[in-house]
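We were asked to recover a plausible sequence for a given structure. The inputs and outputs are reproduced exactly as logged, with field labels preserved.

PROBLEM: sequence recovery
POSITIONS: 123
GIVEN STRUCTURE:
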């Protein structure tokens, strides 16, 4: 009886640990994305390629109206952020991976303007 109780408790602990670690794991935003950006009614598209490491670090490349540049960022859970640095200053994208596989979020153009974006995987 004691052995059965210990076995059940051990099984519970393993399951609980797996569940807890899965909750804190980052969703993977790796891939090629087409971003549709809206800043005060002005719309544009960008192509963004991201690669996410197991520790949540993101490296990527942006091609769009703001230029053609590499960037770095981070992901935690379903949330991510990356910053483009260029001649006009820094542009920060913050968003989340949605259940339907899209990305949604906000973009801040160095405090001068802000807007929203949605993104879908391409190719």
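RECOVERED SEQUENCE:
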């Amino acid at each position: 009886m004691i052995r059965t109780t210990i076995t059940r408790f051990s099984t519970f602990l393993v399951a609980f640990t797996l569940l807890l670690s899965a909750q804190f794991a980052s969703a993977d935003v790796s891939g090629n994305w087409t971003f549709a950006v809206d800043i005060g009614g002005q719309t544009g598209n960008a192509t963004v390629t991201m690669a996410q490491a197991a520790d949540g670090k993101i490296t990527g490349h942006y091609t769009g109206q703001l230029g053609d540049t590499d960037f770095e960022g981070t992901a935690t859970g379903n949330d991510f952020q990356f910053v483009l640095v260029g001649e006009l200053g820094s542009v920060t994208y913050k968003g989340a991976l949605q259940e339907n596989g899209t990305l949604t979020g906000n973009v801040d153009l160095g405090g001068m303007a802000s807007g929203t974006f949605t993104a879908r995987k391409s190719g």
